[in-house]
Amino acid sequence: MAAHQEKKLAEERKHQNMQNGTKVSQGQWGRAWEVDWFSLASILFLLMFAPLIVYYFIMSCAQYQCSLTDPLLDLLTGNKHLSDIWNRTPMLTYRAAGIYSLWVTFQVVLYMCIPDFCHKFLPGYVGGVQEGAVTPAGVVNKYEINGLQAWIITHVLWFANASFLHFFSPTIIFDNWIPLLWCANILGYAVSTFAMIKGYFFPTNAKDCKFTGNFFYDYMMGIEFNPRIGKWFDFKLFFNGRPGIVAWTLINLSFAAKQQELYGEVTNSMILVNVLQGIYVLDFFWNEAWYLKTIDICHDHFGWYLGWGDCVWLPYLYTLQGLYLVYHPVQLCTAHAMGVLMLGLLGYYIFRVTNHQKDLFRRTNGNCRIWGKRPEHIECSYTSVDGTKYYSKLMTSGFWGWARHFNYTGDLMGSLAYCLACGFQHILPYFYIIYMTILLTHRCIRDEHRCSSKYGKDWKRYTAAVPYRLLPGIF
Ligand code: NDP
């Protein structure tokens, strides 16, 4: 019976595809097949300079009290040579290598060996085995969603150690910050290189691989769509969602512990940064199943951009505010602190509600209520590489009727709040909002380009109905 129905469905899809008259190639979906000179130049720039940028920021804090200009001035005026700065930089140590190896191994064990139990007792939480989106080759991957429990176990152990076990100091991360940076780089490069070799020689799904013929582009943007080892070790979900993001809140806690050690108190700005970023991280894990449907997992291939970015860029640059506050403890007046808290919470609210509206809409196929009404939408269709035609819907109600990426706007408001918590003395903590604005604007344009190729004229109808990207009436 089931086999008969499947055959009928396949025939219907074939028929629909014939009716459609066009066979859309994989090139119109997912990342580029061909590399234009601008993309290549950007990629070469990032491959060469992104590791230096991270080093520069962290070194500026360690050697120049978080001033971004003083190291440059020192170098330009001949006051210091590069070798002087480098000689004062801590090298890789056995201790850091041990801590880092233990950390990553522990996260692998939590990811691979403990099936999710949180969904059994937390109402509303979606965990356990979940399905991802359809890949360009028409594959639907299964994922073990157990990030929340990995985060909880890790943090319970952290607090148990800080409160009564005392195996190590809670300042351990701050105290080894630069040696750990070398470890993170080694892992970032190793995993990206392995992913590239794997893509060529033993891909998990050959039909979901993309080769541009340009080594640097393939290395950066990735070849394989969903590289895996065995049935369950998914590179994208693990590296995106575990060592870096679980560490984010621990890194902030370690910075707070360092403030306490150095100054005998934790400032309200440090608490704000810990709380607001903690909400963001916890939100990520609470909604990990939703995350399977975001661009990172649904559309990006796994290369250096994700591999190195998750290991190095995220834990080192997303935590700059906490690091800055160790060097510059800022005690905010009540009005400033309240303003930051309100902005952060409002940003988070918009971010969460917008994402939730789309998720609800997609999960129920539009059979839901958004702001008390049945959501309006635009019917659209696309074709996967095997020629199967699929149907989808683009919602035009709720925040999705205000702008095409209002979730990014909420994210940006939250990001600005973390920066404002650091006062106005230095530019360094504001790097995050500058970076997020560039990232999310670029991501918005990249996503729209992809959606336009995927949905064609249907996408045009959608952009006519919702004309703005991030800010209604402005952009
Ligand atoms: P979205 O969640 O906005 O997903 C975009 C996709 O949603 C599109 O490709 C399209 O996919 C679908 N879609 C677009 N418009 C509609 C609509 N009107 N109705 C229904 N579906 C629609 O983007 P991201 O995955 O980039 O972001 C998810 C969240 O993660 C955001 O809130 C973002 O701020 C955050 N983020 C945070 C980052 C950080 O570093 N802190 C980095 C990146 C993201 P389809 O092909 O299925 O139609």
Automatic annotation (TrEMBL):
Start and end residues of each stretch annotated as Disordered: 1-23
EC number(s) per entry: 1.3.1.21
Catalytic function, reaction form: 7-dehydrodesmosterol + NADPH + H(+) = desmosterol + NADP(+); cholesterol + NADP(+) = 7-dehydrocholesterol + NADPH + H(+)
Gene Ontology BP term (one): cholesterol biosynthetic process
Positions of transmembrane segments: 37-58, 92-112, 148-168, 180-201, 302-320, 332-351, 415-440
GO CC entries: endoplasmic reticulum membrane
Membrane protein topology class: Multi-pass membrane protein
Subcellular location, principal: endoplasmic reticulum
InterPro entries per record: ERG24_DHCR-like, Sterol_reductase_CS
Keywords tagged on the record: Cholesterol biosynthesis, Cholesterol metabolism, Endoplasmic reticulum, Lipid biosynthesis, Lipid metabolism, Membrane, NADP, Oxidoreductase, Steroid biosynthesis, Steroid metabolism, Sterol biosynthesis, Sterol metabolism, Transmembrane, Transmembrane helix
Pathway where it operates: Steroid biosynthesis; cholesterol biosynthesis
GO molecular function annotation: 7-dehydrocholesterol reductase activity
Top EC class of this enzyme: oxidoreductase
Compartment list: Endoplasmic reticulum membrane
Regions of compositional bias (Basic and acidic residues) in chain numbering: 1-15
Function: Catalyzes the last step of the cholesterol synthesis pathway, which transforms cholesta-5,7-dien-3beta-ol (7-dehydrocholesterol,7-DHC) into cholesterol by reducing the C7-C8 double bond of its sterol core. Can also metabolize cholesta-5,7,24-trien-3beta-ol (7-dehydrodemosterol, 7-DHD) to desmosterol, which is then metabolized by the Delta(24)-sterol reductase (DHCR24) to cholesterol.
Family: Belongs to the ERG4/ERG24 family.
Protein name, entry field: 7-dehydrocholesterol reductase
Species lineage: Eukaryota, Metazoa, Chordata, Craniata, Vertebrata
Originating gene: Dhcr7
